[in-house]
Write a structure and sequence with these properties.
The structure is a single chain. The chain is of the alpha/beta class. It is about 35% helix and about 20% strand. It is built from 11 helices and 17 strands. The protein has helices at about 75-85, 95-105, 120-130, 145-155, 200-205, 205-225, 235-250, 270-285, 315-335, 340-355, 390-405, and strands at about 5, 10-15, 25, 30-35, 45-50, 85-90, 110-115, 135-140, 170, 185, 230, 265-270, 295, 305, 360-365, 370-380, 380-385. Strands 3-1-2-4-6-5 form a 6-stranded mixed sheet. The chain has a 6-stranded parallel sheet with strand order 9-8-7-10-11-12, with helices on both faces. Strands 15-16-17 form a 3-stranded antiparallel sheet. Strand 13 (about 295) and strand 14 (about 305) form a beta hairpin. It is globular. The protein starts with a strand and ends with a helix. This is Lactate dehydrogenase. It comes from Candidatus Avoscillospira stercorigallinarum.
Length: about 400
């Protein structure tokens, strides 16, 4: 194998071109980036692997299970990856090398966030992050209702710290500063049906209105050459995350030039509350709460499992899926919009788990769809949680994935 080095990063090619100026070296060292070249419309961009078998897996739910190492790979490379891990970079993205260098550059000790939208969800997320976000230096907020933004700045900057630890500063954000941040949180939404007027899958009623709105911000992220994480919180997060990705990668003529965000720079935050709702009902059934899993979209297509492995029970899992999927209707039956649990479980808690490097629920790129699962960010990039899955459960995940790719 040929290895090269540039700016402290080691590269090996399995199909992708080396970056210009990379010099040959005898042996690999960390951090190692494996270069591949795949169609950006259907493939990932920058992710972590700990076994070379993960390089040849099909895009989709296969990224959620362990993969055997192929027989035809160099032993030295396989041994290195198993011992140290590696990042994979799809060189079909022109900004890929730039992103890789930014990824491995020193990170700030505390993060700066931008939050757009101060409705019910946005205000709840902001309050939770103010109280719990010890990793956050500043939360800059933007809403077209300027008085609402000023109100939140006044009130949340007058909150006492419980233990004396530093709390995030809350400040107003100008439109030209939106992407001067580490994480961009989009909670704004249009088309939420009023209580009593909803029909069918509520999240899909929001899709078309929110898609048109989110396109503007995707283009702004592209223009700013944003290097952070675009956190899509308004529904439907999986479809809108994909829309952000595609829109950010369109040139002025409307064609794809892949000069925008890499797939892993976008994540949808909607599945956390479904996992929380599943656990709520699983507790009444005396099930092992730590074994309960949720996958797929937040709404129709959701997959809940009583456990992922040999103890998987199809009937019980289908029952949990229905209960979790319809839990929001129980709140609407009482005459209220169900936004508190989603804002806390799907957004605030999941975001804090993400910045702490913990496994969390979110919709991440698995080929041509953003699919809800457990993942985390490591020093080498995005890593999905891999565990043995019962064949019947895996079949449900494959169907949910196919439905998502056909739903757009």
């Amino acid at each position: 194998m040929e290895y090269r080095k540039k700016h402290g990063i080691y590269y090996v090619s399995l199909g992708g071109a080396f970056p210009a100026g990379a010099v040959p070296v005898r042996h690999p060292a960390a951090p190692l980036v494996i270069l591949v070249r795949r169609d950006p419309l259907y493939s990932r961009g920058f992710w972590a692997v700990d076994d070379l078998g993960q390089l040849t897996e099909p895009e989709g739910p296969a990224a959620l299970v362990p993969q055997p190492a192929p027989d035809d790979v160099p032993r030295d490379l396989q041994d290195f990856v198993q011992a140290h891990g590696a990042a994979v970079l799809n060189t079909a993205f022109p900004r890929g090398y730039e992103f890789a260098e930014a990824w491995f550059a020193p990170k700030p000790q505390r993060l700066r966030l931008t939050l757009v939208g101060l409705g019910d969800v946005g205000g709840t997320v902001l309050t939770a992050l103010k109280l719990l976000g010890r990793e956050i230096e500043e939360i800059r907020i933007f809403d077209f209702n300027e008085k609402l933004g000023r109100r939140y700045c006044l009130e949340l900057n007058q909150v006492l710290s419980l233990d004396g630890a530093a709390m995030p500063k809350v400040s107003l954000c100008r439109e030209d500063q939106l992407f001067d941040c580490d994480l961009f949180l989009f909670t704004a939404s249009k088309g939420v049906p009023p209580v009593g007027q909803e029909q069918g899958d509520v999240r899909m009623a929001q899709y078309e209105a929110n898609r048109a709105m989110i396109a503007t911000y995707a283009r702004r992220a592209r223009a700013a050459r944003f290097q952070g994480l675009f956190c899509q919180i308004s529904d439907p997060v999986d479809l809108l995350a994909r829309a952000v990705y595609l829109e950010s990668n369109r040139g002025e003529a409307g064609h794809y030039d892949w000069q925008g965000l890499l797939p892993e720079q976008i994540q949808g935050f909607g599945l956390g509350v479904m996992a929380a709702r599943a656990r709520y009902y699983a507790e009444d059934m005396d099930l092992d709460l730590q074994a309960v899993r949720a996958y797929g979209p937040h709404g129709a297509g959701l997959v809940v499992a009583n456990r992922p492995d040999d103890g998987y029970d199809e009937d019980l899992s289908q029952r949990l899926t229905t209960l979790a999927k319809e839990a929001n209707l129980r709140v609407r039956d009482l005459g209220f919009k169900p936004y508190i649990a989603p804002a806390l479980s799907s957004a605030a808690v999941s975001l804090l788990q993400l910045v702490r490097g913990q496994y969390h629920y979110g919709a991440v790129p698995l080929g041509s769809a953003y699919f809800g699962c457990r993942s985390r960010f490591t020093a080498l990039g995005l890593q999905t949680q891999r565990e043995p899955l019962h064949p019947d459960l895996f079949a449900r995940l494959e169907q949910a994935y196919r439905d998502l790719t056909e739903e757009r």
